[in-house]
Amino acid sequence: MFRELLGLPAHPLMVHAAVVFVPLLALLAVVYTAVPRWRTRTGWAVAILAVVAPVSALIAKLSGEELERVLIDSGYPPEILNEVSRHADQGDTTFWLALALALVMAVVLVLASGRLRGVRLPGWFTPLAALVVAVLGAVTVYYVFLTGDSGAQAVWRGVL
Q1: N or C: which terminus of the chain carries fewer CB neighbours within 10 A?
Q2: From residue 125, how far is each of 12, 33, 103, 131, 137 by CA, in Å?
Q3: What is the mean pLDDT of the chain?
Q4: Are 94 and 144 in contact (CB under 8 A)?
Q5: What pLDDT sits at residue 63?
Q6: Confidence band for 87, pLDDT divided at 50, 70 and 90
Q7: Distance between CA atoms of residues 37 and 60, nearest Å
Q8: SS (H, E, C) the chain
Q9: pLDDT tens digit string along 28-75?
Q10: Longest Cα–Cα distance in the chain
């Protein structure tokens, strides 16, 4: 299912969604938690991205696993497969971080929405949520970069 798309390897095409949606989730999540007056404007986008971002990261991960199997079956040399394995490990971490950020944002969205009867958020909620989301978002974006860079290095090193 994640091996080919229109006759091309799916992974290089699929990763673009994760490269866009995961950092976008991180950015809007920080805005949502740090700037309460913008919550009504950004809440819907954060809710959509909390679903789309980890799904796109999962699809990138699964398509990458398919491509790795193709490379192994094709007899690629161990030095390339080692780079691919490192890239895959980083991709796994990126997926789990994107999922964690999405779950944290789902909780924040529910708590901050004001729709839970009888629940009043304490004064420390917004600064603590903003700090947690900022740190988790920054680490997640760093891993998106790290994963993309290691994949690009594996493919393009020595070409130019």
Answers
A1: C
A2: 40, 9, 16, 10, 17
A3: 92
A4: yes
A5: 95
A6: very high
A7: 34
A8: CCCEECCEEHHHHHHHHHHHHHHHHHHHHHHHHHCHHHHHHHHHHHHHHHHHHHHHHHHHHHHHHHHHHHHHHCCCCHHHHHHHHHHHHHHHHHHHHHHHHHHHHHHHHHHHCCCCCCCCCCCCHHHHHHHHHHHHHHHHHHHHHHHHHHHHHHHHCCCC
A9: 999 999 998 999 999 999 999 999 999 999 999 999 999 999 999 999
A10: 62
Give backbone dihedrals phi and psi of 114, rounded to 5 degrees, phi first. 80, 10
Question: What residues have CB less than 8 Å from 59, skipping those under 6 apart?
Answer: 2, 14, 17, 18
* Calpha distance 39→36 (Å, rounded): 5
**pLDDT value of position 134:** 97
Contacts 24+ apart (CB under 8 A), 64-71: 64/11, 64/15, 64/88, 64/91, 64/151, 65/2, 66/2, 66/3, 66/10, 66/11, 67/3, 67/9, 67/10, 67/11, 70/3, 70/9
Q: Where are the domains of the chain?
A: 15-156
